[in-house]
């Protein structure tokens, strides 16, 4: 009866229709809103991503910063101890295998200080795995050098192509000011010791220097020529928001920053050093494929390190689309070079 009286009134019938439609649209909108907040990408993005994924860059040369912890306190450091996480060895190996299957030819282990976890054993096992199991043409390390022991070379030296030691100055007082030191130990004496172990155990020796306000006026020519590295990488001190600049950063590196002109003057002063490879901020920022401790690519295009998803979760091709990697700049800065020690024709 009641139903009959409702449907028999056109006004009430119209109200019923409007209310039903309102409920229908409300539930559709709330479903879409839920889906948008829980799903990382919209369907349109997914389609674009799939095209990008198909044409993803080959990770020819990769830098794996497997730890962020360090025993030094360099004031300009742009990869700081924001976590103490290190992947379990087998997971790190799985990621390295995925990279090799995607075309990786060179792996560089960095940090933090790569010789810290398990007193260099974690690193040694990764080096061995990359050379012996994955047969990578080039396996290298960047280290501050302070934790390296001769026994490490005896055990793992044969599987390592290049060891780069960071040294910004041959003046200990400058190293102390920078924070490139642990206690009163001499960074330079250590560097000389490692250079000799590299000769003895047939590992190519390289030096990295960061040019900053504390060393910009120095002349390192004589020391570098004496040490005779295969390559001397010279970086202009770079700021990265969230690492060494900005509110959430663990370092404040503004006081280390030098201008383009100051950097150029340093390069001009060292023009007689033929192994010098210069990297201005512009060349450096996006020309490295950087993997963090979770095996996520870090995108520096916005001046900070924005992580992708982990290659362990989504694979290399998808993750690398979010790396911000500039392959042209990588080639322009000389990123591809003779990087197997077997091809270097070195006199040991
Ligand atoms: C982050 S460190 C990690 C490896 C190791 N602890 C070391 O210092 O060699 C890797 C390289 O980045 C360089 N580096 C650190 N902070 C930098 C900055 N703000 N600008 C340019 N290079 C920097 C270091 O000198 C080193 O050669
Ligand atoms: S740059 Fe200095 S503080 Fe940073 S990881 Fe290397 S040695 Fe440690």
From TrEMBL:
Q: Which Gene3D superfamilies match?
A: Aldolase class I
Q: Which GO terms describe its molecular function?
A: 4 iron, 4 sulfur cluster binding; catalytic activity; metal ion binding
User: Which co-factor is required?
Assistant: [4Fe-4S] cluster
Which Pfam families does this UniProt record tie to the protein?
Radical_SAM (PF04055)
Subcellular location as annotated: Endoplasmic reticulum membrane
Keyword set, alphabetical order: 4Fe-4S, Antiviral defense, Endoplasmic reticulum, Immunity, Innate immunity, Iron, Iron-sulfur, Membrane, Metal-binding, S-adenosyl-L-methionine, Signal
Membrane topology category:
Peripheral membrane protein
- Could you tell me what this protein is called? S-adenosylmethionine-dependent nucleotide dehydratase RSAD2
| Species in which this protein is naturally found | Etheostoma spectabile
